[in-house]
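Fold this sequence, please.
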Amino acid sequence: MRVLIDKSIWSFALRRKLNDLGSIKDTQAVRELKELINENRAIIIGPIRQEILSGISNSVQYKKLKDKLKAFEDFSLSKGDYELAAEYFNLCRKKGIQGSHIDFLICAVASRNDMSIYTTDKDFDNYSKALKIRLHRSG
């Protein structure tokens, strides 16, 4: 199964060196991402690419990160993905679950394309209680 990789995982792997990781959890996330990449199962979408690259004020670091990400093609999004994301946003809001538009787009893309979502963002645990999404667990 293909796995849509969230910003939190890409950030662990691309913004930090393996030796500089702060916790075992980070190391496991990087190892799992490497395995998914080697198996050609790791998926990125344009909005996640934008999130990863946003906020980097050092132009040298920005270019390095942008160059690393060039190895990964963006998965194509459709009108249906955006419509389902809006539906998911509205459904969760009715249930008192808050989230970002990009998070709901991630959920929609994964749901419509039979992907799981790999993230360390705990908001996705909340979304999974209301939406038809699968979360990828390492190990």
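Residues 79-134 form one domain. Helices lie at 7-15, 24-38, 46-53, 59-69, 79-94, 101-112, 123-130.
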